[in-house]
Design brief:
- By secondary structure, the chain is of the alpha+beta class.
- It has a single domain, classed as Alpha-Beta Plaits, CATH 3.30.70.
- It is built from 3 helices and 4 strands.
- A 4-stranded antiparallel β-sheet has the order 2-3-1-4.
- A hairpin with a 6-residue loop joins strand 2 and strand 3.
- Helix 1 packs antiparallel against helix 3.
- It is globular and about 40 Å long.
Length: 100
């Protein structure tokens, strides 16, 4: 399994437009084969910070995700916004276990 953790920042002026693009992206990505989970969250301390959490079955599923039409549409939607990915890291993991 792959886990992707990313952090982005969007200007306050672009936040509403970014949220609309994000909503579409989340629905489409969660419907992809090989997607275990896909979510964006807004930082409570700084609403211009967006955290992205993704879980994929394998490298092939993640690669296919980057080639989807909805990924291209998302890129186009945020292109005019001040949306900057500050970090994006991919981790290889097992299936995990309950914490408690």
């Amino acid at each position: 399994m792959l886990i992707v953790l990313a952090k982005a920042q969007v200007s306050a002026d672009g936040l509403a437009a970014a949220k609309a693009a994000i909503a579409d992206m989340v629905v489409a990505s969660n419907a992809e084969d090989g997607c275990i989970a896909y979510a964006f969250t807004q930082d409570l301390g700084d609403p211009t910070i967006i955290h992205i959490v993704e879980k994929w079955q394998d490298e092939a599923a993640l690669a296919a995700h980057f080639a989807t039409p909805h990924m291209a549409a998302f890129g186009a939607a945020i292109a005019g916004l001040d949306f900057k990915v500050m970090e994006a890291v991919k981790y290889h993991a097992d299936d995990g276990a309950p914490v408690m």
